[in-house]
Amino acid sequence: MPAEQAFAALAALSTVPVQVGVLHAAVVLLEATADRCEDEQLKAAVEATVAHLCEAMKLSAPAPAAHDSAWFAAPLQPTPDR
User: Fold this and answer.
1) Can you give the residue ranges of every domain in the chain?
2) N or C: which end of the chain has fewer CB within 10 A?
3) Measured distance CA(9)–CA(28) in Å, rounded
4) Who contacts 60 (Cβ-Cβ below 8 Å, separation ≥6)?
């Protein structure tokens, strides 16, 4: 069952380098899935995964670079929890 596999994967987390954009894309897709999901166990697994991804994005976000026009210097912000 996908939800059980997802929970098992979250329980065995390991640290690997990854681009923040990949995490953000996963969050967007998972949130869209959770919005349409009728299986409560799967929805809980998706929400737990989104929470972990958002936390990873917070931890990996670099400090904004000092720049005169800082419109592009802010790190990518995770989507707000629902």
Assistant:
1) 2-72
2) C
3) 19
4) 18, 20, 23
The Cα 25–Cα 40 span in angstroms is: 23
* CA–CA separation, 35 and 21 (whole Å): 21
Model confidence, pTM: 0.56
Q: Over its length of 82 residues, how does the chain's per-residue pLDDT go in tens digits?
A: 777 887 788 777 777 777 888 888 999 999 998 889 899 998 998 999 899 888 888 876 655 554 444 444 445 555 565 5
Contacts of 6 (CB under 8 A, 6+ apart): 42, 45, 46, 48, 49
